[in-house]
């Protein structure tokens, strides 16, 4: 599973982003979580938008991983886009969302 997420890091065009969208749309497994973490280091704007979208995923682990990746990106422009996560029902998601603003 992690190998699939690692392959996203090697794709520096829309293909990596499309794979991420497919994984997070159709599968809430650890692959989506690992993919979100790998996108933390992808400088493409599409990667940032995919993480923002994943921050609203139905799977708790995917939401938390996406928010962690956003925090690692240190891109303060994403904070308004993930503000709904501050009201998430799960503590880990709320706390991780709050951490995005502390970078």
Beta percentage is under 5%
CATH architecture descriptor? Alpha Horseshoe
Biggest beta sheet attributes: none
Shape: globular
CATH topology: Leucine-rich Repeat Variant
Q: Indicate the low-confidence ranges by residue numbers.
A: 1-13
> How many helix segments?
6
CATH superfamily: Leucine-rich Repeat Variant
Instruction: Please count the beta strands (DSSP E, at least 2 residues each).
Output: 0
In round numbers, the mean pLDDT is 78
* Structural domain tally: 1
The assigned structural class equals mainly alpha
In brief, what are we looking at here?
This protein has about 100 residues and is mainly alpha-helical. The protein is built from six helices and no strands.
Model description:
This protein has a single domain (2-100), classed as Leucine-rich Repeat Variant (Alpha Horseshoe), CATH 1.25.10.10. The chain has helices spanning 2-10, 14-26, 30-39, 45-54, 60-73, 91-100. The longest helix has 14 residues, at 60-73. The protein has 103 residues and is mainly alpha-helical. The model is unreliable at 1-13 (pLDDT under 50). Helix 4 runs antiparallel to helix 5. It has 6 helices and no strands. It is globular.
Salient structural properties:
mainly alpha, globular, disordered N terminus, Leucine-rich Repeat Variant, 103 residues
How are the elements arranged and paired?
Layout: H1 2-10, H2 14-26, H3 30-39, H4 45-54, H5 60-73, H6 91-100
Helix pairs in contact: 1-2, 1-3, 2-4, 3-5, 4-5, 5-6
């Amino acid at each position: 599973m992690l190998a699939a997420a690692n392959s996203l890091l090697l794709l520096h065009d829309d293909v990596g982003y499309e794979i991420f969208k497919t994984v997070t749309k159709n599968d809430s497994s650890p692959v989506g979580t690992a993919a979100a973490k790998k996108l933390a280091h992808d400088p493409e704007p599409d990667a940032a938008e995919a993480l923002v979208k994943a921050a609203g995923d139905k799977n708790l682990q995917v939401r938390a991983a996406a928010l962690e990746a956003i925090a690692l990106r240190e891109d303060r422009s994403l904070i308004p886009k993930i503000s709904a996560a501050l009201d998430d029902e799960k503590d880990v998601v709320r706390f991780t969302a709050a951490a995005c603003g502390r970078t």
